From TrEMBL:
Protein name: Transcriptional regulator
Keywords for the protein's UniProt record, in alphabetical order: Transcription, Transcription regulation
Domain of life: Bacteria
Positions of the HTH araC/xylS-type domain: 214-312
InterPro entries: Class_I_gatase-like, DJ-1/PfpI, Homeodomain-like_sf, HTH_AraC, INH-QAR
Gene3D superfamilies: 3.40.50.880, Homeodomain-like
Region described as Disordered: spans on this chain: 66-85
One Pfam family cited in the UniProt record for this chain: DJ-1_PfpI
Organism taxonomic ancestry: Bacteria, Bacillati, Actinomycetota, Actinomycetes, Kitasatosporales
Native source species: Streptomyces viridosporus (strain ATCC 14672 / DSM 40746 / JCM 4963 / KCTC 9882 / NRRL B-12104 / FH 1290) (Streptomyces ghanaensis)
MF terms (GO), sorted A to Z: DNA-binding transcription factor activity; sequence-specific DNA binding
Family annotation (PANTHER family): ARAC-FAMILY TRANSCRIPTIONAL REGULATOR, HTH-TYPE TRANSCRIPTIONAL REGULATOR RV1931C
Length: 320
């Protein structure tokens, strides 16, 4: 079996979990199947680096002495705001030689600065997607998924999504059983689908300032199977449908319909992840009415069917 070298780049201001999360995944896979991964860390000059949380990390070597990697992993952190030119220059020269280029969180900015994301679809932490798009217009930035694969380049969102991506790569390399073993050791899901949204409906929308609108938001999340038309929600807020729709969008940043769609999708996801309820039962409980309506919503938003979504998360018996 071919051993794959995973080279993790270090720099001052790096996010420690961006380094240790994926590293633990690959190290766990190496323990499960010896001889499959070789982990190596390197900083621009081989000197210790200080992470954003104040920890000191000692690299194995300098980048100039680093082995040619199969997987080159670039973490994020505050240090990506003013990157070391030695690092971006090294990435520009050596990045294209790696069989896989991987970034975690704002590590995407380092890949972009080195020109390695030009013409590619990529993501980063949702709070920084706008900046990535502005500073690097040649990159097609997708703010929604927890990770994006474009050819041999993979970019991920915030901290824990780096673990999801690393598990997906282990599954690709060694199979589902090995990835599942590592996931169980780390007490995480085998892997969330890359198309899963980065945050919940409640986080995606702002909380309305006015009490009637806040009450409607809470009521929607607690009753996804109810009549959630604009007319019905406007009646709960004691507003006309037109006034309600305008006020809701102004105060939450999204339309009532889109908010309802997100709540229902999130509710269905949780039931698929945490229960053994059948798809038909979940579709009714989540307000879709029919399994086909729920399937269309999942494919549109996540690029996968409810059945496939559940398979990736859990192995639970379902009730017909």
């Amino acid at each position: 079996m071919t051993q794959r070298t995973v080279l993790v780049v270090l720099f001052d201001g790096v996010q420690s979990l961006d380094v240790t999360g994926p590293s633990e995944v690959f190290a766990g896979a190496e323990k499960h199947t010896p001889g499959t991964y070789r982990l190596c860390t390197a900083s621009p000059d081989g000197a210790p680096v200080r992470t954003g949380s104040g920890l000191t990390v000692v690299p194995d070597r300098a980048l100039s002495d680093a082995p040619g990697p199969h997987t080159l992993l670039v973490p994020g952190g505050e240090g990506t705001r003013r990157p070391d030119p030695r690092l971006t220059d090294w990435l520009r020269r050596h990045g294209p030689r790696a069989e896989r280029l991987v970034s975690v969180c704002t590590g995407a900015f380092l890949l972009a600065a080195a020109g390695l994301l030009d013409g590619r679809r990529a993501t980063t932490h949702w709070a920084h997607c706008g900046r990535l798009a502005r500073e690097h217009p040649a990159v097609e930035v997708d703010p929604d998924p927890i990770y994006v694969r474009d050819g041999h380049v993979a970019t991920s969102a915030g901290v824990t999504s780096g673990i999801d991506l690393a598990l997906a790569l282990v599954e690709e390399d060694l199979g589902r059983r090995a990835a599942l073993t590592v996931a169980r050791q780390l007490v995480v899901f085998l892997r969330r689908p890359g198309n899963q949204a980065q945050f919940s409906a409640q986080l995606a929308a702002q909380t309305a300032r006015r009490e009637p609108l806040r009450e409607v938001q809470h009521w929607v999340t607690e009753h996804p199977d109810a009549d959630l038309t604009v007319e019905a929600l406007a009646a709960r807020a004691a507003l006309s449908p037109r006034h309600f729709a305008r006020a809701f969008r102004t105060e939450t940043g999204t339309t009532p319909g889109r908010y309802v769609d997100r709540v229902r999708l999130e509710h269905a996801r949780r039931l698929l992840e945490d229960t053994g309820d059948g798809v038909e039962e979940i579709s009714r409980a989540s307000g879709y009415g029919t399994p086909e309506a729920m399937r269309r919503a999942f494919v549109r938003a996540l690029g996968t069917s409810p059945a496939e979504y559940r398979r990736r998360f859990r192995s639970v018996p379902t009730r017909s």
